[in-house]
Amino acid sequence: MTRILLQYLLPLLGPLALYLLYMALSRRAAAKRGNSPPTIEQSKLFWSIVLGFVLMISSLVIAAITVGEKPGSGEYQAPRMENGKIVPPKFN
Fold first, then answer.
1. Contact yes or no for 30/43 (Cβ under 8 A)
2. CB of 68 closer than 8 Å to CB of 61
């Protein structure tokens, strides 16, 4: 569970949480000054986060399409003992 939190959720939700905290603080400061509070969509930081998600998704799709071997293109050799030593698994 910790690995999932650190490797997946924190990098995705951490910047979003920081951005929402920034927006809450800037809205509070604008209210104290009597200015109209900024909306989330007007901020340049919002569009940077949206662009980051789009780039992340597109890079994952491109990597899934272009990287790797075709299914069934190799033969898997399981780990085994040879001369008292363990030979690691590999694809031929």
1. no
2. no
Burial class (CB in 10 A: 0-12, 13-18, 19+), 26: middle
The b/e string for 46-83 (b: 16+ C-beta within 10 A; e otherwise) is eeeeeeeeeeeeeeeeeeeeeeeeeeeeeeeeeeeeee
Sequence spans of domains, the chain: 1-64
Kindly give, in sequence order, each residue whose CB lies less than 8 Å from that of residue 22, ignoring residues fewer than 6 positions away. Answer: 45
For residue range 20-56, what is the model confidence (pLDDT) as tens digits? Answer: 888 888 889 988 988 887 777 777 777 777 888 888 8
